[in-house]
């Protein structure tokens, strides 16, 4: 049976035979596939692969030529218009604007659609046919013309009702319908009219504005609002002491334009959640002026330690004295709040602010901002004492040390700046503070922008080498200098270049970067001083000599430029091949 099935699978007809390839199928497919057959197939496959690789380059070249030939015969649309697209660059604006617009390619029927015209039927038409006993309202176009009015075969709906026509009489009083309509219009107009005849209280300018104010601001689906109301109502009933439910309900009504409903809900929320700070603040936000003050006063009675409620109470006051009174009352109850002290100090005059800050640092000794603000308002000697106390209370903050350095620089004691910064690094490390190099460089940039040049340079010198491998120092320092230049901190960049030149005095690339920096951002005197030092350390760098000669020439000091060129030739141990024109 199996043998017969194999015979059926093999198609050995003459139609399936080829003189070169033989039969399409394999004559020996039914035979066993042994290891020798597998090796033979592998050898033939390797030979085919080898022959294919030999012909691959020639085949690919032939395919490429065929593709190019095909593209030449049938180019793409983009290629056909490439020359025209290039010519568009020569089109002027006037020529472009003068190009006519593309016409409407639609046919006449599409361009001018004929809409269905509906003509209202006069009352006389109905009255005429009711009197004649006809009760049809549709016209058959196959019967008569419009003048004949034949073919009315559909009963007029409602024509036999007592309100419109008395049975058997065919009477319909259209005048009464018109009078009723006019009466209704008069009633509506009388609602917006004065008792004085001929006048009206409608403001024509603000009428549309009033209408817009009546429109809810929410543009979503009404069904979504109803679902949200039901959901929030369920939450309030299930857990009435949950503050977010009351806040969300009030805001939903506010968004939909029902402000009074929102106020009622949030006031109900204050009764159910009297210890919730957020509910009281939301109630104060929704209520108008005096009512909001009363709400905040009630909130203070329930939450006498809430800083945010005191801040809100101060914001509601319009008079500065009232604001001060509220904040001072708040500080009596919450004396440890830095935010309250800062808000109160901002409203005071400098002398009163200094007195208040003296009390503030006693109540909040760990606030760096209060200590620094007090130091700014004190005299030089008192400011030093204040900063020393601040360092005792907060030994882990770097801003106090930097402020002390800026204070000494501002009073002319620049020799103390480096000592203070060095002591700051040592003290902070002793207290377990990690010296973050990037943060200190940012502080130096801020000092540079504030005008404290000595302080920023001292900070750069102290932290520039922290946390950098020895082989990465040059690359990292150059990147830091470029970053400082990008941030506008030129003195920081100058300090970085100066430190790099001390570490790498024989590096021509460092001298060149520093020279270009002075050329772009410094003065001619600083550039020439730097170049004088550069040629002393790198006498074989002729570009540095030429930069110095060019600087002298630009300053119209030709003899000095010639002397520099002569020194260049002497330093390079050769005759000078340069002229003044060769400097450019």
From TrEMBL:
Domain Suppressor of forked: 278-425
Record's subcellular location: Nucleus
A GO BP annotation: spliceosomal tri-snRNP complex assembly
Keyword match Nucleus: yes
InterPro entries assigned to the protein according to its UniProt record, in alphabetical order: HAT, PRP1_N, Suf, Syf1-like, TPR-like_helical_dom_sf
An example Gene Ontology CC term for this record: U4/U6 x U5 tri-snRNP complex
Residue intervals of the PRP1 splicing factor N-terminal domain: 2-108
Descriptive protein name: Pre-mRNA-processing factor 6
Organism, as annotated: Oreochromis niloticus
Phylogenetic classification of the source organism: Eukaryota, Metazoa, Chordata, Craniata, Vertebrata
């Amino acid at each position: 049976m199996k043998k017969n099935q194999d015979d059926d699978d093999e198609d050995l007809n003459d139609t399936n035979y080829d003189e070169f390839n033989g039969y399409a199928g394999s004559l020996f497919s039914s035979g066993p596939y042994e290891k020798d057959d597998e090796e033979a197939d592998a050898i033939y496959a390797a030979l085919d692969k080898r022959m294919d690789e030999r012909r691959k380059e020639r085949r690919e070249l032939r395919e490429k030529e065929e593709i190019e030939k095909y593209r030449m015969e049938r180019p793409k649309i983009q290629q056909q218009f490439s020359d025209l697209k290039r010519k568009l660059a020569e089109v002027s604006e006037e020529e472009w604007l003068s190009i006519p617009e593309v016409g409407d390619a639609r046919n006449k029927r599409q361009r001018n659609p004929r809409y269905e015209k509906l003509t209202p039927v006069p009352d006389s038409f109905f009255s005429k046919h009711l009197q004649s006993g006809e009760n049809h309202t549709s016209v058959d176009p196959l019967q008569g013309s419009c003048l004949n009015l034949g073919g009315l075969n559909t009963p007029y709906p409602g024509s036999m009702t007592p309100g419109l026509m008395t049975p058997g009489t065919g009477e319909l009083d259209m005048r009464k319908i018109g009078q009723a309509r006019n009466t209704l219009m008069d009633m509506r107009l009388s609602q917006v009219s004065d008792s004085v005849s001929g006048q009206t209280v409608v403001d024509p300018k603000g009428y549309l504005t009033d209408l817009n104010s009546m429109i809810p601001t929410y543009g979503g689906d009404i069904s979504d609002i109803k679902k949200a109301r039901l959901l929030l109502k369920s939450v309030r009933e299930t857990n009435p002491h949950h503050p977010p439910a009351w806040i969300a309900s009030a805001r939903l009504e506010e968004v939909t334009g029902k402000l009074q409903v929102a106020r009622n809900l949030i006031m109900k929320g204050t009764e159910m959640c009297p210890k919730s700070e957020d509910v009281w603040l939301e109630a104060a936000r929704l209520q108008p002026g005096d009512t909001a003050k009363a709400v905040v006063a009630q909130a203070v009675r329930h939450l006498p330690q809430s800083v945010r409620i005191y801040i809100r109470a101060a914001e509601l006051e319009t008079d500065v004295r009232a604001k001060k009174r509220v904040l001072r009352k708040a500080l009596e109850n919450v004396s440890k709040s830095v935010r309250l002290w800062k808000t109160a100090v901002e409203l005071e005059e400098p002398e009163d602010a200094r007195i208040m800050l003296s009390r503030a640092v006693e109540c909040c000794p760990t606030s760096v901002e209060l200590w620094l603000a007090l130091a700014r308002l004190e005299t030089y000697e008192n400011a030093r004492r204040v900063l020393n106390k601040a360092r005792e209370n907060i030994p882990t903050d770097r801003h106090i040390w930097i402020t002390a350095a800026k204070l000494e620089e501002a009073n002319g004691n620049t020799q103390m700046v480096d000592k203070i910064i060095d002591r700051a690094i040592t003290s902070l490390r002793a207290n377990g503070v990690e010296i973050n190099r990037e943060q200190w460089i940012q502080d130096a940039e801020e000092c540079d922008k504030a005008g404290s040049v000595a302080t920023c340079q001292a900070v750069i010198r102290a932290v520039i080498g922290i946390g950098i491998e020895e082989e990465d120092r040059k690359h990292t320092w150059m990147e830091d200098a470029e970053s400082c230049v990008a941030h506008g901190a030129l003195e920081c960049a100058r300090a970085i270049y100066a430190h790099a030149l001390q570490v790498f005095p024989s590096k021509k690339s460092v001298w060149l970067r520093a020279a270009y920096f002075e050329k772009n951002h410094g003065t001619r005197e600083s550039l020439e001083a730097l170049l004088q030092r550069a040629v002393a350390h790198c006498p074989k760098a002729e570009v540095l000599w030429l930069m110095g000669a060019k600087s002298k020439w630009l300053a119209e000091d030709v003899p000095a430029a010639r002397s520099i060129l002569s020194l260049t030739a002497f330093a390079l141990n050769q005759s000078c091949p340069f002229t003044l024109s060769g400097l450019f």
